Design the sequence.
């Protein structure tokens, strides 16, 4: 395959971390295709990216709808995929209903698997690909009230490791980025209250991250020269996962 692959698909690109990853990677010269359920927000993000001559694009899609994922993503020939879309809830595990649990597993785990499953065959044909799964510190160091979320992120870390082994023979690398706490819509309610103040004290750097503190890491993960890193889980968490 002689054609230089240059397209990165980012799920959950309409806001938060995903929108920022899109900006950073567009600035690095990649064509971005953003995916989200919210067409209006997504379109705005895509239209404001740097390097518009690369024809950045967006696809309105709920990643839990496997039929739609197949129809809308099957044709894509990607350089990279960032499985970033995710949801959270705050409940004790034994108070989660079957519906709550199915919903969070469906987005955070099944949704990521749905998207990977459909783009991997072309990556195999190209003998090239970079998959980044956005996990979380909570995937290996849980806290109360986020047990369901933590379980989905632990599973995503395991998926990352399993797929890194399965896909290595095709020159496809699979890594996970595990951020600590960054104030976005997913956790605003939790972090802006007293729970947030308690949490901050546990973080060795004594503050939450800003979204832009992930910029050098996402650039490095998708860098063309980053060819030997696979199966890694990169923590960017102000020391949270290292401290007691
Ligand atoms: P956010 O709520 O701001 O953004 C989530 C994005 O995912 C949105 O664009 C939303 O539309 C999209 N999304 C949700 N469900 C979807 C679905 N079914 N189909 C398609 N798109 C869907 O949250 P964020 O903080 O930007 O989180 C992004 C990722 O980073 C998540 O996977 C989250 O678990 C992870 N993460 C966030 C933090 C943090 O502190 N913010 C820390 C660790 C990990």
Sequence:
């Amino acid at each position: 395959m002689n054609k230089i692959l240059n397209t990165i698909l980012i799920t959950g690109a309409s806001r938060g971390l995903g929108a920022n990853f899109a900006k950073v990677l567009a600035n690095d010269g990649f064509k971005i295709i953003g995916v989200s359920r919210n067409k209006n927000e997504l379109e705005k993000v895509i239209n404001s990216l740097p390097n518009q001559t690369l024809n950045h694009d967006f696809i309105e899609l709920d990643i839990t709808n496997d039929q739609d994922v197949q129809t809308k993503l099957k044709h894509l020939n990607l350089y990279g995929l960032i499985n970033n879309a995710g949801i959270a809830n705050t409940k004790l595990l034994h108070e989660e209903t079957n519906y709550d649990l199915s919903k969070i597993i469906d987005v955070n785990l099944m949704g990521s698997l749905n998207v990977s499953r459909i783009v991997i065959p072309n990556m195999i044909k190209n003998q090239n690909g970079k998959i980044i799964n956005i996990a979380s510190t909570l995937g290996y160091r849980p806290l109360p009230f986020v047990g369901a979320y933590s379980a989905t992120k632990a599973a995503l870390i395991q998926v990352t490791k399993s797929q890194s082994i399965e896909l290595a023979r095709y020159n496809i690398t699979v890594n996970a980025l595990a951020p600590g706490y960054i104030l976005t819509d997913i956790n605003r309610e939790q972090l802006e209250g007293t729970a947030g103040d308690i949490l901050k004290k546990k973080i060795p750097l004594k503050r939450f991250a800003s979204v832009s503190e992930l910029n050098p890491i996402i650039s490095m993960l998708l860098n063309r020269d980053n060819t030997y890193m696979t199966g890694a889980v990169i923590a960017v968490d102000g020391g949270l996962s290292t401290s007691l």
